[in-house]
Write a structure and sequence with these properties.
The chain has about 80 residues and is an alpha+beta fold. It is built from two helices and three strands, in the order H-H-E-E-E. A hairpin with a 4-residue loop joins strand 2 and strand 3. The longest helix has 14 residues.
């Protein structure tokens, strides 16, 4: 019983490691002109977080630094 416990504990630790995450995750390649969605964590007063739209956009990437991307935000959704 201890052997099984030790083996499963070892597998659990290995599966949570950074190296394992890095193997399965891919690098995101964004380019200028790509359309992206912006995560909006704000919730208007009187609205439910569960039913609110969490992503707004699409927006266009205008500039890329090493880790940051600058986007242009168009006019608000639903306005004419």
């Amino acid at each position: 019983m201890q052997t099984v416990h030790h083996h499963t504990h070892k597998n659990l630790i290995t599966s949570k490691s950074k190296e394992n995450y890095d193997k399965t995750s891919g690098e995101m390649k964004l380019q200028i002109g790509d359309k992206v969605l912006l995560y909006d964590e704000t919730v208007r007063r009187g609205r439910s977080r569960k039913l609110s739209a969490q992503w707004i956009g699409p927006h266009t990437i205008t500039e890329i630094d090493k880790v940051n991307a600058t986007i242009t935000r168009g006019r608000k959704q639903g306005t004419s």
